[in-house]
Amino acid sequence: LNVFFLSDLHLAHEGELVRGQDTNAAFDRGWVEFAGVIASADLVVACGDISHNGCMEGYMRFQRAVEGCATKVLATVGNHDDREMFSYHLGAQHFCETGHAQSAHHGSKSVILLDTLVPGRPHGALCQERIAWLSDQLRLAAGRPVIAVMHHPPLSLGIPALDDVSLLEGRSELLSVLESYPGPLAIFSGHHHIAVSNRVGRLPIYICPAFSGPPAKFGLWRHPPEFGPGANGACGVTIGDGGSLAVHFLTHV
Length: 253
Ligand SMILES: [Fe+2]
What we know:
About 25% of the residues lie in helices and about 25% in strands. By secondary structure, it is an alpha/beta fold.
């Protein structure tokens, strides 16, 4: 299964800059540059912060891009999104019965998207309802390879400015459910606007760079990240039979 994975689009009002970055222009450039890759993917996954501060124009821009795309697209929300606005423009297929932006693709491999949004707050959370839905989806996946997708990474990087806004509530409950899955499983997140490959418990975790939001130019050890205009990126993910995983970090300017 080939997945084109993008996060942190931060699509804004026409002419609005996000920390100096023209996110709409960066999105349009990236979407054109990766058009061939997107067309040849089996699935496109957008991991939240589609719109900057939930603005309608952001969802409309993403909706137009998705409508022109023959590949199936799954999307969830990040801290900058507005669930109602997201649902209105992108559709109910991205939502589960609990009213959260959770959806899944099941085939010989499974991709499960979780909603970690806490309205008005920068950090992430998963409540019992959302985790119970995840457990049901993992039962459906039945040991086949899984990638679990959520905006807020459920790990600490040792960078306080980022760790303070990671998945803070429901983290241990989430990790115990994921770790008890009997098949291969990897976690994909966004939110920090930097590219990271790491491990949490026995599970690999990848943090995708921002597709068009301002990249974090510097953020390492105890150095706070500086967000500003610059190169953006995405991940090309191949999940093989038996759960092999190839993750390519892609960049565009
Ligand atoms: Fe973001």
